[in-house]
Specification:
By secondary structure, this protein is α/β, with parallel strands linked by helices. The chain has six helices and ten strands; from the N terminus they run E-E-E-H-E-E-H-E-H-H-H-E-H-E-E-E. The chain binds adenosine-5'-diphosphate (ADP) and magnesium ion. Residues 20-21, 29, 49-55 line the site of adenosine-5'-diphosphate.
Amino acid sequence: MQTKIRTQTAIAVENLNHYFGKGELQKQVLFDINLSIDCGEIVILTGPSGSGKTTLLSLMGGLRSPQFGNLKILDRELVGAPKTTALQSRRSCGYIFQAHNLHSSLTVIENAMMGLEVQGTYSRLERYDRAREILSVVGLEQRINYYPESLSGGQKQRVAIARALISHPKIILADEPTAALDKQSGREVVTLMQKLAKEQGCTILMVTHDNRILDVADRIIYMEDGKLVAKNPEAR
Ligand code: ADP
Ligand code: MG
């Protein structure tokens, strides 16, 4: 079969600059970022610690307000946009963080259900059913009533993936999702994200330092000192 023709741009960044702090303490952390990611693409963003990767992801996800340039998420401009636009953007993105951020007082299934809470359109029963379904996809159907503390690192990260994917987001932003995992769990988690993304047709932008998982990407981009730089993957 022919590869699918990609028509829509999921993330479009033009001349994006970002500063932290004010006055004399002001520091520029992103410099003239230009980047376009198509719907359905899996892109890995890599680069040294402190180079601005998390900042860029948090701007894309509507967790932080972009200041200068253009940043469009699913054709919605976020620079200079009202708060409601950032909120819409947050709803169309699923996040997976390194420190999985599960609620320790909630069970596995309750944590997964949280991924639908922000949508506000589902009854508790519907949320429960959808959570059970996605947890079985990530292989945790036997663990739905456990608390996070009794799970392994890989299992916790799979709960975080279930929570991010339960709402079928168009875009997944994952910030070092395998950093806390051993080699095999890291690989499993990423393969699972890739599989679910292909099934749901969503776009993934993943920050990672993990050389062992680079092969899942359609494209690898590299950041250094707040700038996207051209990089030959074979060069290192
Ligand atoms: P990375 O994710 O690539 O490690 P970050 O985006 O976290 O990089 O950080 C980029 C730079 O911005 C670093 O110099 C960091 O110290 C600085 N920084 C990050 N967050 C803040 C913040 N909330 N306030 C001020 N400086 C920040
Ligand atoms: Mg970071």
